[in-house]
Amino acid sequence: YHLLPEQRSLMSSQRTQERRPEGMKPYVFAVGGGSLFAIHNECEVYNPRTNAWTPIAPMLWRRSRSGVTALHKQLYVVGGYDGVSDLSTAEYYNPLINKWTNITPMGTKRSCLGICAYDGLLYVCGGYDGASCLSSMERYDPLTSIWSSCPAMNTRRRYCRLAVLDNCIYSLGGFDSTNYQSSVERFDPRAGRWFPVQSMTARRSSCGVASSDGYLYCIGGNDGTMCMSSGERFNLRRNAWEPIAAMHSRR
Predict the structure, then answer these.
(1) Model confidence at 7, in pLDDT bands (50, 70, 90)?
(2) Cβ(221)–Cβ(201) under 8 Å?
(3) Residue 25 pLDDT more than 90?
(4) Residues in Cβ contact with 236 at an 8 Å cutoff, skipping those fewer than 6 apart
(5) Environment class of residue 50 by beta-carbon count within 10 Å: exposed (0-12), middle (13-18) or buried (19+)?
(6) SS3 state of residue 85
(7) Chain-centre distance of CA 123, in angstroms?
(8) What SS3 state is found at 93?
(9) Which of 6, 102, 129, 213 could form a disulfide with 109 if both were Cys (CB 3.0 to 4.6 A apart)?
(10) pTM, two decimal places
(11) Cα dihedral angle (79, 82, 84, 89), rounded to 10 degrees?
């Protein structure tokens, strides 16, 4: 198996799966955010083995409406709002040493942004810079500590959500400062272009988005009149959105 890497796909079995010790189970992090009277930099982590939340080191900046994602077993927090202005700053958390470290700021201030990690890079797009809704996109390479501009989306979006499906980055819904969006577009890093995707059946801003088993799920959000409990999923093979069971609560 180790001597013939080009034939590993033919040798796949239980014996060739990576062995994961108990310590490799995932943790859940809650970072920053806003309450009624304050913007927070406090953070905590949930350990599913002990069923307990534990405080961790606070972020270097107070942030709400920021983008959060994991990359290379570190937690990145990008942009957001500190109670006075929108932020271009970013930082990452190393759980091995319980420490936050600043990284190079983005080229644009962004709150309410979309964020995801793909192929070792950090992608952010859309959001709000304190004056207007954004369609721009940039990506961060942790090996060079450099942000690079990417092609802009076709639609301005804040409170949009990003997810990766079939080697493409999907941007869903959001608010363009006038209309709540049902539109969807996808960025193909290999082609370096955004492509239109079949629109969702409902307008959704601030929705929950995740990809799983070849489907792209979109749940809840706000359509401009109310918070929603409905959900739907994108079937890549059929190139169509399908309804799923609604949640018990509007969110």
Answers:
(1) confident
(2) no
(3) no
(4) 165, 166, 214, 215, 216
(5) exposed
(6) coil
(7) 9
(8) strand
(9) 129
(10) 0.88
(11) -30
